[in-house]
Amino acid sequence: MVARAGGGGTNIGLLYALNKEKIVLATRGVGAVLNIILDIILIPRYGAIGAVVATGSVGILLVLTEMTILRRYIKTRFPLVFALKIFLAGALGIFMASLIKPVNGIQLCFAALIYFVIFIIGVLILKPFSEDDKEVLSKIHPVVEMVVKYF
């Protein structure tokens, strides 16, 4: 979730669009080396959890690094309030869904439904979109215009 809130793959796409492929290659190369080093350190001691921590940590570091680099080329502010509201709604949904310990497909689907419902309720309450966001989004399609007014 942290990586998504930080721009996720969007940062890479924007850097490519700005003809900054070498920056993407360099950051991803350093990330790969760092991931291997952390794997060598963490996997023998923690097993699969060590691999998850290494890969997740490097992924977050890469997103934050690419976001910082991108800000040098695009003079815009990061939508922190929006990202925090979406993160909070998602975290609450994950917490509630994690209370269900699914042992079969039906329970797993129920946990996913719980996440989705809690996330939507959270977004409805937190209203992450600014009026400018709503105006831009409403121009996409009439259905989007009808939905976006609630958020």
Characterization of this structure:
This protein is mostly helical and 151 residues long. The chain has 2 domains: 2-73, no CATH class; 80-148, no CATH class. The chain is 80% helix and 0% strand. It has helices at residues 2-5, 9-17, 21-46, 48-73, 80-98, 105-126, 131-138, 142-148. Helix 2 runs parallel beside helix 4 (48-73), helix 3 packs antiparallel against helix 4 (48-73) and helix 7 (131-138) runs antiparallel to helix 8. The radius of gyration is 19 Å and the shape is flat.
Major sheet attributes: none
> Kindly state the mean pLDDT as a whole number?
88
CA distance, first residue to last residue: 20 Å
Oligomer: single chain
Counted beta strands: 0
Domain count: 2
| Helix and strand element order | HHHHHHHH
Radius of gyration: 19 Å
Helix content bin:
over 70%
Q: What structural class is derived from the secondary structure elements?
A: mainly alpha
Low-confidence stretches: none
Strand content: under 5%
Form type:
flat
